[in-house]
Design goal:
disordered C terminus; disordered N terminus; 0% strand; mainly alpha
């Protein structure tokens, strides 16, 4: 007799792996992406809504500028480079308890700037210096031991960020406003050069993998000229030659625009993981030209270059990178969901509102608050979506943290 009704037990979804300390500290992007994005959210809300809580030696505008550049942007860069370095060299630069210790040093720096008194300030400054030099040394060791000549200069850019940080704090303590701005701009340009170097490598690689049949040039030779122009701009700025720095910076920005157009940005319009990176690269390119105009005396307000480069450039690109590279290294499909796309829209809105607030009008306060709200929501969405993934093993690791002591190097890094 044939069966008229068959009832099978439902197939149970595989149990969600539990959080693991080993997984959380297996690569630099996991704790440092979360830490950098969380601090970006908290520090902006403090700056806009509770500035009275900023009672440390480095207070007010000096604290805000420092924490945005070195506490947020450069922190994400260290997390990215420690992760990418494993792909470039086949050696994981830092992991486990050593990576956790690096994160504790970072936390000590963030807390120290908020505590009143010179001892706390000195502790914070030293902690930040150790953080960047430790990251540079760990990456440099992997690069040197594997004779990865293509990346010999990357740890030096991290060391330049550390040096600019130290000079910035020295100027802040001595009350040297002109020195403060010069060293902040040097740090900003060091970060811009590093960002251009990384983005020029990964953006064409990501694009060709995401868009079927897309063929775009890597612009390796123009990237070398761009790198040389950026380094020249930093040296000339520190040497007190703003006109020469303006020319070098303009050259770097124009090369970036040419690269952006050559990479066919219109082909990325249906791929959120791509168009957010294109948007950030465009913002950074324009920001470099605005910075050149300011150094040449054509733009009066010194806040314009920092915010175009920092908010429209770095921040937009960072949100795209911490999404794309995290998904790849977590073994997840390279696809966005609604929360991720919404976070992209919010970070771009935050950038536009912040730039609008630089224009003289009666709506400045409202624009600032609206920008801070959009900024906080964008980063909160990222943290909400990615925190549960970051503290667990890779999706394809079968519930166990993957060993990462030796990683097969690839020609074009995915992170």
């Amino acid at each position: 007799m044939s069966s008229l009704l068959s009832i099978d037990e439902p197939v149970r979804a595989p149990a969600r792996p539990r959080p693991q300390w080993r997984a959380f500290t297996e690569m630099g992007f996991r704790p440092l992406y979360l830490a950098g994005c969380a601090w970006a959210l908290i520090s902006v809300l403090l700056w806009v809504h509770a500035p009275s809580l900023l009672r440390g030696e480095l207070n007010g505008l000096a604290w805000h500028a420092h924490e945005m550049l070195w506490g947020f942007v450069a922190t994400i860069a260290v997390g990215f480079l420690l992760t990418a370095g494993a792909n470039w060299t086949g050696r994981n630069p830092l992991r486990g308890n050593a990576l956790a210790a690096l994160c504790l040093v970072w936390l000590a720096a963030r807390a120290g700037y908020l505590v009143p008194g010179r001892p706390a300030f000195l502790l914070a400054g030293i902690a930040d210096l150790v953080f960047f030099l430790w990251g540079a040394a760990a990456l440099g060791r992997s690069v040197w031991l594997t004779r990865n000549k293509r990346n010999y200069g990357v740890p030096l850019l991290l060391a330049a960020l550390a040096s600019a940080h130290l000079l910035y704090l020295t100027a802040a303590v001595s009350g040297d406003y002109l020195g403060l701005m010069r060293y902040f701009n040097a740090g900003l340009l060091s970060m811009a050069v590093l960002t251009l170097l990384i983005a020029r490598r990964v953006l064409p690689f990501f694009a060709k993998r995401a868009v079927t049949g897309l063929d775009i040039p890597p612009h390796t030779r123009s990237g070398h000229w761009q790198l040389a122009a950026g380094v020249a701009a930093i040296v000339l700025l520190l040497a007190g030659a703003p006109k020469g720095a303006a020319l070098a910076l303009a050259a770097s920005g124009l090369i970036a625009l040419v690269q952006w157009l050559a990479w066919k940005p219109w082909t990325a319009r249906r791929v959120p993981l791509l168009w957010i990176l294109y948007a950030g690269y465009l913002g950074l390119s324009i920001g470099l030209l605005v910075g050149a105009a300011q150094l040449a005396g054509l733009v009066v307000r010194v806040a314009w270059p920092a915010h175009v480069i920092g908010v429209a450039g770095f921040s937009v690109m960072i949100l795209g990178m911490v999404t794309r590279t995290a998904l790849g290294h977590l073994g997840r499909p390279l696809q966005t969901d609604r929360s991720m796309v919404l976070s992209y829209a919010l970070i771009i809105l935050a950038a536009l509102l912040r730039l609008a607030a630089l224009l003289p009008s009666s709506a400045v306060t409202g624009l600032l608050h609206a920008s801070a709200t959009a900024w906080a929501l964008a980063l909160a969405l990222y943290l909400w979506r990615f925190f549960p993934m970051m503290i667990r093993p890779r999706a394809d690791a079968g519930g166990q943290a993957t060993p990462v002591m030796r990683i097969k190097p690839v020609v074009a890094p995915r992170g």
